[in-house]
Amino acid sequence: MNASGYEQMQLIQVDPIRRNISLALTQIFVWPFIYLTFLMLLIFSKKEIFRTETRYILFGHSLLVDLMFLFLTDFVVLLSYNFVLIPLHFCIPICMLMEAVTACAPLTIIAMCVERYVAICMPLRHQAISTSRRALIVILMIWILSSINPFVDMFILISTASREYLSQLTHCHYEIMIPEKIRHFARGLLYIVGLVFILIIEIFCYVMIYIAARAASGDNKNSASKGQRTISLHILQLFLCTAEVMCPYIEAVVMQYDIQTYLTVRFINFLAFSITSRAVSPLVYGFRDEKFYAAMVYFIRCKNNTISSDTIKQS
């Protein structure tokens, strides 16, 4: 798994120029996504139709989860690359929240897939099944399931770790909560098993929607075809989540041969799977949706007109 806090400090100090370039590139990648995700979340909060329809409620939740993930990840990166060490017991809440947010992503994906399956394959029951109240209950269940693992790890750590270990200075990364290697392996294995289970459900939804698309005609056929493309996007998201889980194992192998190559591979994995993949997918999903895209265009035009009017008045 990832190196310990002390080893991370040594790796960052290998090449100051590399460190500064990596930090700059990280900010260049992260903040545009943070801005766009925040903008979409703001638009979601301003339109009542988005707050009352199940698919948009789940989409808004995915935006919130990704925004939290980007903020927390960037915060941890800034601490690490600026050599800021903080007491381990202050890192624990940050690590727990990051772990919960990470687990929320695939669970939200499966909830969105099931919603599309119900909408296309059970159109007469869709209004009764997919209500805003049930969507909020699903989101609550997602957070409960996502929080189980970090809370269990926290209780085990507090019960078994010494006071010296809990008070040491470190970088914030989840491995500080599971110092035993066997628990590293068990965590990765459990996460992969969960992703495989989610993938099976997504493939089932895709096949059923595909069958519905072949049997449908007219508007129903178009709706089913859009549902197929949506499920395909969710499957891609899930593969990216799986790749993110596998990255630390690949990095551990590379680290045994060459530190410089390890740093390059780790940075590319970080940008490709931890940042870009999580940010791009919801943005693509939002731009593909006609209602949400129209709301974005309207919001941006209104803002531009307001700024232009204020500029004319001041001049």
UniProtKB/TrEMBL annotation:
Signal peptide: none
Main location class: membrane
SUPFAM superfamilies, sorted: Family A G protein-coupled receptor-like
Location(s) in or outside the cell: Membrane
One of the record's GO cellular component terms: membrane
Pfam families the UniProt entry points to: 7tm_1
InterPro entries registered for this protein in UniProt: GPCR1_Superfamily_Member (IPR052921), GPCR_Rhodpsn (IPR000276), GPCR_Rhodpsn_7TM (IPR017452)
PANTHER family reported in the protein's UniProt record: G_PROTEIN_RECEP_F1_2 DOMAIN-CONTAINING PROTEIN, GROWTH HORMONE SECRETAGOGUE RECEPTOR TYPE 1-LIKE-RELATED
Name the record gives this protein: Adenosine receptor A1-like
